[in-house]
Design brief:
single chain; 4-stranded antiparallel sheet; 5-stranded antiparallel sheet; RCC1/BLIP-II; phosphoprotein; globular
Amino acid sequence: EMAGETEDEIPESGAVFTFGKSKFADNVPSKFWLKNDVPLRISCGDEHTALVTENGKLFMFGSNNWGQLGLGTKTTVNKPTCVKALKSERVKLAACGRTHTLVYTSRGNLYASGGNNEGQLGLGDCDDRTSFHLVDFFSKHEPVKMLAAGSNTSAALTQDGRLYMWGDNSEGQIGLGKESNALNPREVSVGKRVSWVSCGYYHSAFVTVDGALYTFGEKDSGKLGLSTEKLASHKVPQQVTGISDKVVQVSCGGGHTVALTDHEVYSFGLGQFGQLGHGTFIFESRLPRVVEHFRRGRVKHVECGENHTALITDSGLLYTFGDGRHGKLGLGEENFTNQFKPTLCPRFLDYYVHSVTCGGCHMLVLAKPRPEGSEDLILEEDDVTEDYFEKSYTELLGDTHNQSTLNRSLSARVRRRERERSPDQFGQMFRTLPALGGNQLSASLSVPSQIHHSHSKKPGKIPHNSLKSTVTALKTVLKGISVLYSQMLLSLLKRYYLFKMHKFILIYSTVY
């Protein structure tokens, strides 16, 4: 395993990018790739991560207080570490729950490690394990094609469309009605073959081959997307009727659910951090509602963390929204704000994003460099293609010495910001930021005309190689205008208050 230093070094096979409290690289946004192997699948738990490679190796890192890394200890691990105990088998799938991990190998063996207080390891007891133990049940069944794990729940979907779940059922989150838990895998059936499954923190969902969506578990806050009548039976799977199209994917977060059809993205449940993507004032949606940002059919993958959401489009672009704490939305080291609508991650404009996975307070992205001269990027109408939080005033405005009107008003702020950015003061976190200088941009850039966002919902295309210069030029102009307007407003306010004060003094001296 090797950690990357510069963009140029990233191999064609791609890299793993980490955001938020991943435990990797001191939780600073970072990237790594593997020597002689290629990352294939990633799964994030609440505070830990599993990585499966093309060669069938399993790498684990993150919190380990329950033994969820399966390395034989309970010590936190801050860099990807190979699970040597599984080296004799090719690992195909992995799923991370809140405190446990499930793994499936090409031999047809399913293993589990970590917290087991509700029997979520499927081993017939409630004792925690610090190394991977075989779940006998699946050695005698059809091959498994998908795994999922929640707070204290586990799920395995076989190739013939049978769904098995085990662990905590206190809220009905494994669909077994009044039973409190299941220490061994149990089949959950609605009489139809299942094609997709997801476990949230305290609720779960699956999709059947005919495109029907079923939810079950904790019924608060609308995260099941069910009508009041159906909520009464929330401890067994209930069909969500608020989506007319066939559902192809579903993902469950902490208090929200996101479903994908061939044409639209739907979300429902809690939205207080913006994780529903419906805008600033939608804190809850009890029924499925379309996420309005994308043209029909653009989104190809959906993923929920505890309080945030990530989407990948057909052109390999990444969008995130929801809780921005610790930078887990991937929008810049200084941008920890919540996003209430799908927000393009400018970090990956030069990459093709293959997969994304979201945890409790982190996110991992698997992406490959976009080849030079590749097809035009297609953006949505409202997309912002560069992150202002990552740039200093000097960079945004160009050479302030050539802009006498801005220089007087901004010089103190620029100096202060550059002092604040000093690597010596803040250590490693800021050493990866762009170098500052007064002459990176010309103040008189002409604005190229290659970008167009059409109002008729037609794709806005950007030739790949002209994207940066276009955005930089627009940014310079817009920022300059906004600063000038700010200065004018301040000047007007100052005059107004001076006038008021003058009037007051005149009245005061007349009376007394």
